[in-house]
Specification:
By secondary structure, the chain is an all-alpha fold. Helix content is 76%, strand content 0%.
Amino acid sequence: MSENTIIIVGLFILAIVSGMLGLGVAFAAVPFLSLFLPDLVHQVQPLTLMLNGLTALFATFGFARSGYVDWSKAIPLVVVTTLAAPVGAYLVQFIGQNYVWFVYLAAVTYLAYNLFKPVKKDAARQENFKLALILAIPISILAGFLGIGPGFLLMPTLIILGFEPKRAAGINAFAVTLPSFSALIPHIGTMQLDYQLTLILLIVGAAGAFLGARITSLYVPGNRLKQMFGVLIVIMTLYKIYTLLT
């Protein structure tokens, strides 16, 4: 099996799983693609930002068909995330890759903790959307810095602030679409991509994300999916740490 075939098949699987959570594929795709592409800032990040925006968009379509996208909250949230994400993408141009990986691993730790932590069911629990809007600003700046889109932190944040998991996934999917593309802007002049492979990955990622969102909407409990995704990103990140140390 060729390297490109492995990349395509692996990205399709990651797109399905990330589409299930409405996260966009970038958070899992960064450590996966970095196994094959050596330059984090100029190869991996531009590609994962494109993939993240497209997979999040198609995940939004999947969740919207089942009524899980609250547009009254998703639209103002996407405005905030879109404006804040390019700040981090600009800053990363001036920082060494080792420091970027350090921040990434810290973010992985936070995400894994929130994915595995049980969500308490409380009928009286209120959604704190105002706080979600405020927290979306630093989350989006950090996401632009890492080249992964804000969904990886925004999704568990919405759950912590009282949103039901599938509803949070639907809002999150739309909220991370535009900032993924806006964070791509600072990379346009320096990115180094294989455009034929990129086109194939975009098509495969979009199909996988839509399929994943529909699977979640119709069949799969949210808590189980969160745990599956947590295991997946932890395994890939640990492997990336191994490659960095050897």
